[in-house]
Amino acid sequence: GSFNQNRKGIRSSQAILLSALEPFIQYTMTLQFPTTCPHGIGQSAVYLPDKKKVVVIGGTDGGNHALGYTQILDLTTGQWSNGPQLNTPRYDLAAVYCQSQSKIYAIGGSDSEELNSIEILDAGGNIGSSTWTALPSQYILQRPRVASAAVLIVDRFLVVMGGYANSSPIDTVEILDIQTCVQHKGPSMSRPRGDYGATVVGNKIVACGAPEQVQAQEHGELEFIEFNINATTVYELFPQSAQWKIHPTLKISFSDIPQLFSLDPKADSFLAIGSQVVELVELENAKVPISQCSFSIDRGYSAAVLLPANQQLYPAGILAIGGNRDPTSMEWLPLPDDIHVRLKKYQTGKIPDFPPLPPKPTISTNPKQLKSSLQQWVQKAESILTDYMAHVEEWKDQEEKLCQDQCSTLQEKIDQLRAQQNNLTTTSTARAKKYVGRCKHEIGSIRGITESLGRGQTVADALAKLQEDGPPHELCCPITFELMTDPVVIESGHTYERAAITQHWETQETSGIPVTCPSTNQQICSKKLTPSLLARSLCRQWQEEHSGWHP
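-> structure tokens emitted (551 positions)
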């Protein structure tokens, strides 16, 4: 409303006050999200904060027919648009967004058959004109996964967990370094899980949900595993002692398929979103969920995203897209005040929301009532600000401790790398000396054969003399230079002594470098060892024919 011209002083003062407080007032809903969406059950959705868009991927038509489309919701206009088609239509897939690379990853799922492929969409430019690209076959998942969960750690390490394989839930974990495409096996979960949710909370991955086959009291249980937030390779992400643990006391109250969203990367809180109920959970400080809100209808098998507040458009809330009850509907659920306040508490770069200002005065406003309303507002604002400053100090202490811990971790890593370097140097020196000794021995043998031929001996006698000097190099391990007793073939096609190649790979992994073939120095994707029956037979035959030979 407008002010009476006789109240210019009040008008001027309140204008200044509103201008100063405008960034701190809780945002109201001015953007109207559409209430309908493209048909969707079993699809996946990702939020692109730098693009202000939501991308919905795949899904099913309600049967077993997989959909290959991509749909894009512009959060500034509330309009849907079509995106590129997947190379392989899929539903019950996992999806993550890497903001530093502006790429979306679509992982596994089903198209009537279980999939282990991964597709990438470049979202750096116009998403609608981009195309999905399948990762090469050497970088696909080690096994197909349907209804698995995936998280992205420090915008680099893609961790894919659980899911269904051969229609049964599994507990295995795979890690892919999206910068180097190095793959590694992670610690298995405490129990097989499919149709469940996972998120990153601080330095932990938290998972919740379980298949229907487990006991009812296990549906709402939480399990978590700690990771190394300073990891630079997949081999450093989880310490050797890391294992999944069931939270001893905390459970969510609903038993249907949850989706989990962290409120803030540094907070210990997250939202568990079920088919109808949404709960706020604090991992460390609570034994039960501390807040709830609900959708208007059952949203099972929908795709949900958590949207932070967007000034002048919408407050923080959850956008649920599709679902088996109404596949073409969409629902916007604003976060309740208590969840909203806790969300702001962890974002120390922003002042928390102040209470709404009293109504603007008019010509008929009672001055005493106006004064009382303003005093009450000031008291509430001071209380919020005092609480906020206390959290700032608490957060400052946590940041200082985190920096100290990171410095200690880095120093330990430096010491560890130095020890590994010394160990590798010692090992390499020993191998080099052994190799030189073997070469000298073979050179001496060849000279002896030459001298024997010069004295008139037959070629057969010379070759017999050569065999007496040691086994042929084809039967010796390229690492130990000794006759093999348990030869195995690796991915590159080269043959090694089983114990020698296993120790070689363990040394590489401990040093944080990718495993390679020692003969070619090329990186390999699989550490599978295949026994070489022919090489074993030849080695045993040579050993039986030269029983008196000793190295």
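Residues 1-28, 345-349 have pLDDT under 50 and may be disordered.
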